[in-house]
Amino acid sequence: MTKLIRWDPFQGMDSLMADMWPSRGGFVPAVDVYEQGETVVVEAPLAGIDPNDVKISIENDVLTIEGETSKKSEVDDKNYYRQEVRMGSFHRVVSLPVSVEAGAAKAEFADGVLKVTVPKSEHAKRKSIPVEIKKKE
Q1: Please, which pLDDT band fits residue 27 given cuts at 50, 70 and 90?
Q2: CB of 118 within 8 A of CB of 105?
Q3: What is the mean pLDDT of residues 105-116?
Q4: Is residue 50 one of the residues assigned to a domain?
Q5: Is the pTM of this model over 0.85?
Q6: Residue 82 covered by a domain
Q7: Among the four residues 25, 54, 86, 109, which has the most C-beta atoms within 10 Å?
Q8: Residue numbers of the domain that contains 96
């Protein structure tokens, strides 16, 4: 007698996803994106990462942050109960909310936080439009 197996349309999805985007020990850093006056600011906590290993680029109002981190020394005899500290390469792509002047971007790294500041382009800045009031004749 054969056993009936319930059909699952998502069966095998985990292995398919793993084949498409293999895990290499990497991670995706969290980001905060906010407006500060006439600039757009992106902050990403990258504690424990050497700022010299971080690459930043902006193209078509899309910010890319990438880099790599590794353990300084590996100890094989540890019996981990939990291992959540992420190591490996990271890559984060953020679509900026307005058009920006990529050539004027500045990046700084302090206290484990990367801060990228990019001025808005002229056509993205808010403009006041006066309302003309006409009187009926």
Answers
A1: confident
A2: yes
A3: 95
A4: yes
A5: no
A6: no
A7: 54
A8: 25-69+88-124
Q: What is the count of structural domains for the chain?
A: 1
Alpha-carbon separation of residue 98 from 59, 124, 127 (angstroms):
13, 6, 14
Query: Cα–Cα distance between 134 and 137 in angstroms, integer?
Result: 9
- Phi-psi group of 124: left, alpha or beta (phi > 0 → left; psi -120 to 50 → alpha; rest → beta): alpha
Token look-up 């500060």 returns: 36
Residue the block writes with tokens 């990228």: 116
Tokens 């900026």 — which residue?
A: 96
Give pLDDT tens digits for 62-72. Answer: 999 999 877 65
CATH code of residue 115: 2.60.40.790
β-pair partners for 68: 89
Which residue has tokens 């500041």? Answer: 117
Q: Is 78 part of a structural domain of the chain?
A: no
* Helix, strand, or coil (residue 18): helix
